[in-house]
Amino acid sequence: FESGWIESNRIELLPSTRVDKLHTDAGELVLSNGSTLRADKILLCTGSRARMPEIGGIVRPGVFSLRTDLD
User: Fold this and answer.
1) CB-hemisphere CA count at 13 Å for 42?
2) DSSP state of 32
3) Is the pTM value of this prediction over 0.70?
């Protein structure tokens, strides 16, 4: 990424922080450190290969798999 791109797009990176619970109806994530985040939209980044996790509701309109930041 270009310098400042993450900040200018209001993205907060939380490396080494696991999402323990995902409440899609409430738009809420519970993190491994016990904190809670709220979001209008949630992007799951699962690693270097696109992989759809086996979670309920994943096969719905508006749920996509992204491989790069250009997707």
Assistant:
1) 17
2) T
3) no
User: E strand or H helix at 6, and its extent?
Assistant: helix 5-8
**Whole-angstrom Cα distance, residue 14 to residue 20?**
14
Nearest to 29 by CA among 16, 47, 44, 48: 44
**Contact, 15 vs 31, CB < 8 A?**
no
How far apart CA 61 and CA 57 sit, in angstroms, is: 10
pLDDT (average), residues 59-71? 76
What pLDDT digit, counting tens, does each position of 5-43 carry?
999 998 888 888 988 999 988 989 999 999 999 988 877
More confident residue, 64 or 20: 20
Nearest alpha-carbon partner for 22 in 50, 1, 48, 46: 46
